[in-house]
């Protein structure tokens, strides 16, 4: 085990409600820990310390890769999963049960994504539940396209992956994959709520809570690593606006009107056995 990975690390802000604990690393907008009673729901890279295989990161302004890495509308380049997880966020509010972070447009973001924006992430804890509210403010005189996604790594032993039970997403079947050598990496329609039963752990519900009667997370990417990867004891059920290259598809992405904001809410609820 990497000694520096013992929870909580010095970088982690801790939120608590009853027997539910959440950790957040504000600098990179990473939900690093979610635990209900004895069940550690999110994967921590205890052996490797690999920050790119950890917790619940936010992928913004784009999920996955753009074709040739190009944002066609502006002719700029954006990295896989955007820049949100690589730039420093600022804590704007904090209490024992919630933490709000902001990222604003800057000289670093404009060459990649030439818009004026404010992104606000609020992570809140309640009994057995993590609620993640993302607000994207467009401060421009033009429409701001955006296609974010959440990339949770849920902890599970390799031998238990084939024993996972899932009532979604639509079209997904645990039995359709050889988890040791050929795990899934596929998008599916997200039916607003999915329940997963983790062997010997409990039931996890992944849901989008509508905001102003509106749903935004229309797809779910299911992904894991083969057993040969240094980090592999996880499975990802990723609620997203749209899959790879979605920022280049106007009909699939979010298109935020000038001088307005768009909010979406993700909720994870864990019920231990």
UniProtKB/TrEMBL annotation:
<dbReference type="InterPro" id="IPR011013">
    <property type="entry name" value="Gal_mutarotase_sf_dom"/>
</dbReference>
<dbReference type="GO" id="GO:0016853">
    <property type="term" value="F:isomerase activity"/>
</dbReference>
<dbReference type="GO" id="GO:0005975">
    <property type="term" value="P:carbohydrate metabolic process"/>
</dbReference>
<dbReference type="InterPro" id="IPR008183">
    <property type="entry name" value="Aldose_1/G6P_1-epimerase"/>
</dbReference>
<protein>
    <recommendedName>
        <fullName>Aldose 1-epimerase</fullName>
    </recommendedName>
</protein>
<dbReference type="Pfam" id="PF01263">
    <property type="entry name" value="Aldose_epim"/>
</dbReference>
<dbReference type="GO" id="GO:0030246">
    <property type="term" value="F:carbohydrate binding"/>
</dbReference>
<dbReference type="InterPro" id="IPR014718">
    <property type="entry name" value="GH-type_carb-bd"/>
</dbReference>
């Amino acid at each position: 085990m990497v000694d520096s990975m013992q929870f909580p690390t010095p970088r982690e802000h801790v939120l608590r409600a009853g027997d539910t604990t959440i950790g957040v690393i504000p600098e990179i907008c990473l939900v690093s820990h979610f635990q209900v009673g004895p069940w550690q729901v999110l994967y921590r890279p205890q052996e490797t310390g690999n920050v790119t295989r950890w917790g619940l990161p936010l992928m913004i302004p784009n999920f996955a890769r753009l074709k040739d890495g190009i944002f066609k509308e502006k002719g700029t380049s954006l990295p896989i999963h955007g820049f949100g997880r690589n730039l420093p966020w600022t804590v704007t509010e904090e209490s024992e049960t919630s933490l709000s972070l902001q990222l604003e447009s800057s000289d670093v973001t404009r060459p990649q994504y030439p818009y004026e924006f404010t992104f606000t992430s609020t992570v809140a804890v309640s009994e057995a539940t993590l609620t993640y509210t993302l607000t994207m403010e467009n401060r421009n005189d033009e429409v701001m396209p955006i296609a974010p996604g959440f990339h949770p790594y849920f902890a599970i032993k390799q031998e238990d992956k084939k024993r996972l039970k899932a009532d979604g997403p639509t079209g997904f079947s645990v039995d359709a994959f050889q988890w040791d050598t050929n795990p899934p990496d596929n998008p599916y329609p997200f039916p607003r709520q999915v329940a997963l039963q983790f062997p010997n752990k409990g039931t996890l519900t992944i849901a989008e809570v509508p905001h102003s009667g509106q749903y935004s997370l229309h797809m779910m990417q299911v992904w894991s690593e083969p057993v040969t990867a240094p980090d592999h004891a996880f499975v990802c059920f990723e609620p997203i606006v749209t899959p790879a290259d979605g920022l280049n598809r106007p009909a699939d992405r979010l298109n935020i009107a000038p001088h307005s904001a768009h909010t979406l809410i993700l909720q994870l609820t864990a019920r231990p056995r």
